[in-house]
Write a structure and sequence with these properties.
Blueprint lengths: L2 H9 L8 H13 L7 E5 L7 E5 L5 E9 L13 E3 L2 E3 L7 H16 L6 E6 L7 H9 L4 E7 L8 E6 L1 E10 L14 H15 L17 E9 L9 E10 L5 H11 L4 E7 L4 E2 L5 H14 L4 E5 L6 H4 L4 E5 L3 E2 L7 E3 H22 L1
Parallel strand pairs: 3-6, 3-7, 7-15, 8-14
Antiparallel strand pairs: 1-2, 2-6, 4-5, 5-17, 8-13, 8-15, 9-11, 9-12, 10-11, 16-17
Length: 370
């Protein structure tokens, strides 16, 4: 399997999150790659979530290794679905996030099948990761006993020279403010919900500071953060707002808890304000001295010809669904830029190296487990 060719074929599908027809075509294309092989699994459909592709070399709930990824992408212009290579870089939507690395996972599956490696190996590709991974949650609920000793996660970072050992816990909070409507010329006859919201946000900022480019840039970035994702309040310009709300995106380290966040939020609410936790997850924290992670790191350093470092990132990962089930998660991706933006690209050499590293790691694991 030529990884870069498969990556480009995947990128030609306009599988933007929610585009069911193109997503189904993309999934069928992947299935076609394994026609005539003893692959297990297939496409799993759900009533209230987009489909998930699960392919494996064994029919079991207890795997040695699973590769996780997704095939959906964020919206883009038509030309971004026409991938091309220039100066060693693969350009187009999904090149970095993350169809190139879905191709890597499929290449690993082909290697396991072709060489009949004595390991239980599978690939899980969701189709709505860019909008909350509801499909992953549905799949995990449908497979409550599914687990894996090791999970390979290539949907992180963007620098092949770094292995991610920690991801934060994303917690989304809705702040609601209720006031009393009145005419804008007589504010003393009303209670402005927008003001209630602003005062509440000010209180939150006393605990969770505002960081920005050109502003405050903390030296230690492994800290709890929050950004105001959405704000809205009022209906017309000359009426005191009776309701306002904001959606806050908190990113918590493993040293924090949602319960502690709630205690802080309780202190910040002013009269007329309330909140609810819309969604929460769990941080993914791996032991950098874990022998499997060190094995993988060894092969990565061999492929790259220099030492690698570990890094911590604020982004979330679907592998958290397996981390809570006891999996060792190895988070490593290729190098590129422009994720979710015009000019998205991945360095071709980095994709090919990730594919080579995975195969060497799987070969060694197969020998160790014999």
């Amino acid at each position: 399997m030529k990884v870069i060719d498969i990556a480009q074929n995947l990128m030609r599908f306009r599988s933007e999150t929610g585009n069911s027809a193109e997503i189904e075509k993309c999934l069928q294309y992947v299935l076609s790659l394994f026609e005539g092989t003893p692959v297990k699994g297939g496409i799993f459909h759900f009533e209230d979530a987009s489909p998930v592709l699960f392919l494996a070399n064994a029919k079991t709930d207890d795997f040695d290794v699973l590769c996780l990824g997704h095939l959906d992408v964020v919206p883009a212009t038509d030309n971004m679905f026409c991938p091309y290579i220039k100066n060693g870089k693969l350009y187009g939507r999904g090149s970095l996030d993350m169809k190139s690395f879905a191709a890597v996972a499929l290449n690993s599956l082909e290697h396991v099948l072709k060489n009949k490696l004595p390991i239980k190996f599978g690939v899980i590709l969701s189709t709505d990761e860019e909008k909350g991974s509801k499909s992953t949650h549905a799949f995990m609920q449908a497979h409550p006993k599914l687990k894996s000793k090791i999970v390979l996660d290539n949907d992180v970072g963007g620098d092949i020279n770094k292995i991610v050992s920690k991801c934060k816990n994303p917690v989304f909070v809705k702040i609601m403010a209720d006031g009393l409507a009145a005419h804008g010329s007589t504010p003393w006859e009303g209670i402005d919900a927008n003001e209630i919201l602003l005062q509440t946000l000010h209180n939150i900022r006393q605990i969770y500071p505002y960081y920005s480019k050109g502003g405050v840039d903390p030296q230690n970035k492994w800290i709890d953060t929050v950004h105001v994702a959405i704000m809205q309040g009022g209906e017309v310009s000359n009426v005191i707002a009776r309701h306002a709300e904001a959606v806050l995106d908190f990113r918590l380290t493993e040293n924090s808890t949602t319960e502690n966040l709630k205690r802080n939020l309780d202190k910040c609410m002013v009269k007329g304000a309330s909140y609810k936790i819309s969604s929460e997850s769990t941080p993914v924290v791996m032991d950098e001295n874990n022998p499997y992670i060190l094995d993988y790191k060894h092969f990565a350093e061999q492929a790259l010809g220099h030492p690698l470092e570990f890094e911590h990132i604020g982004g979330a990962t679907d592998s958290r669904a397996f981390a809570v089930r006891g999996s060792i998660v190895i988070m490593h991706s290729g190098t590129g830029e422009g994720m979710h933006a015009e000019g998205e690209y991945v360095e071709v050499d980095s994709v090919e190296k990730i594919a080579d590293i995975q195969i060497k790691f799987l070969d060694k694991l197969a020998k160790d487990l014999q």
